[in-house]
Every structure is written in structure tokens, then in C-alpha cells.
Amino acid sequence: MPELSSKRSSFLSFQPPAITDEEIAAVAETLRSGWLTTGPRTAELEARMREYLEAKHVLAVSSCTAALHLSLVALGVRPGDEVITTSLTWPATANVIVHCGATPVFADVRDDTLNVDPERVRELVGDRTKAIVPVDLYGQPADLDELASLGLPLVEDAAHAAEARYRGRKVGSIADLTCFSLYATKNIAAGEGGLISTNRDDLAEALDDLRVMRRGHGSRYDIAVPGYKANLSDVLSSIALVQLDKVERHAEIRRRHAAIYEEGLADLEGVAPVARDERDVHANHLFVVRVTFADRDEVQRALTDENIGTSIHFLPVHRLSAYRDRLAAHQPPLPVTERAGAEVLSLPFSPAHSDDDVRDAVAAFRRVHARLAG
Q: Looking at residue 2, what is its pLDDT?
């Protein structure tokens, strides 16, 4: 591949949102309608996402963190329980377990996809295990069939995986509860927000009570449970609806950009994209490489000097100060997770980027590799 002789003149942001006049017009229309809180746009978003996710129920909430938290509450997770998850994730995945008063137990990940390893999960299941929270890391579905075979409820953290399919089935239609993110960087981006999908009527009813503060009006309102203020506004739903209209168009751009990266970095020693399972449809939320030719942090700083923005997904949660003293007594070592946490580097990846932007990132990476690989 030909090398570029100099860095970009402007900084390439890591993951800018792909927002256009269509989203702006949708927000303006919603504001003029008088609906600022949950209303017809949110109902429309839920209906369209039911169809898109091939799920019986979809409930819109204020964030993916809220989605995960309410899902665990609906399953009855409480103090004294344990929930098995991965440490290679954003802390919210573990935080919600703590919010329920339960203890997160971290299972190690597979060395190829970096998703939680079902065999390591199996070893950790005990009398106190209430649920499993797998993460569809970077857009690659977790090993859902193997995890389901363990006989525990699955709360799937699909924040990265709105477009994904697992063995031909849509993510969102498989686990007991599946949680999605509408955060600003996500493939369907509303700025904030989350979704919960389920095929279970009992869980959908419980979640509907948990996400709002009351039912009814005037002197006849009531509450069924002491719930949470976790509903989604119509303003954010209107943005998500426009993004949903563009989801296939954006997916094609992401696929094209992933191919540019794979071709442009293929011959570099000590650089390996995180593996994908060809039996599944990857959502292409992030493009992540494992860097072993030099210190990952040094490579990240060098790319910043080249005007290329990057990020790290993720530092292992169990190494963060909030969790060092919270681990269950039988928490095992996590060697694969810790090694990956020191190697992963996320490259610029957004439908807001042009093909030439991605080629600039490849050229800059190659220059950094040439300087540091020795």
C-alpha cells in the first residue's frame, strides 16, 4: 500500500455522530407538537424496533444502563445474589449489578472474539448465581446458545449490536432480555436512550411498571411497584427514528470502512483485528485491533500526534478501583482479559467519516508502525 508522506492537516475525530438536517427537522417537528416527554414518537420507536428486532416487546428507556438495571430488577436480582459477566466492558455492565445489591463475578473471555467464554462462565455458576450478562463486544454477538444451555436467565448487553444476527436470528429476539443503547456514538444514535427487547410477557409487564413513576391521572393514579424515572422522551425518540431509517445505509458504510482497515493493515506484524465469527452478522460498531508491536499507549499517543483520534474499549473493570475490593471470594484470575485490556485500540469508525478519512487513518497507522515496530 502506498504511504502518505505527511499527517492530516485537521484532526480526525474518533467517532462523530452522523447527524444531518433530517434529524434536526425531526426534533423541530417534535418540539412544535408539544410532546417533550414520552409520547407518540416513543410509541412509534417501540413499534418499529419490535419489527426490526423481531421481538414481541420493546420498551424504550432513558439509557442502556437503565435498561440493564431494570432488567436485573425485573428478574428479581437482589442483595446476596451473584451475576456473572465479563470484565472487558464499559463499567455500566457491572455497575448495574452493584446497584441491585448483588455481586458481579467476572468470567474470562475468549482470545479470538474477546466475548465472554461460556466454559469459564460454567465454572463460576453456583447456588447464588441469579443471571448471566454477556456483552456483544464491538458488535459480535456473544455465544448465546452455549450460555443459554447453562439454564440461567440471560440479560444480553447489546449496546454495540443493534444490527447483529446470531446464527441467523436477530439479536434482540434470543435472550430473556436484550438491552440496546441509543447513545451518541452508537449505530442508532439519539444522543441518549436505551431499549429493552423481550419475548416474555411477564418481564415486559414488570419492566413497564419499573420505568414509570405512576399509572393514571388526577385522584386515581397509582403505582404497582416503587419504580424508577427511566422513560425516554419524544425528542430523543424522534432522532432515533430518523437514524433507524438510515441504519442499512450506515451499515454499508461501516462494512466498507472495515474492509479498508483490514486490507490496509493486513501485512503489519503485531497488529491483528479482533476476530469475528463468520456464522454471525457483525454489527460493526467498533473497529478494534490488538497492538503487540509496541506499547499500546505509546501507539495511541503517536496516532494523536498524527491527528488521528482513537479510543480504548476497554480497560478491564475488575482492575478499576471501584471493583478491586468488591470481587467475590471465588473470583478467578482473568489472564486473557488482562492481556487484551493492554492491547486493544479502537480506530476511527463512523458513517460520518469518508473513505478517504479511513485511508488517512490507515496511512498514519502504517507510519507509526514503521517508527515503533523496531
A: 46
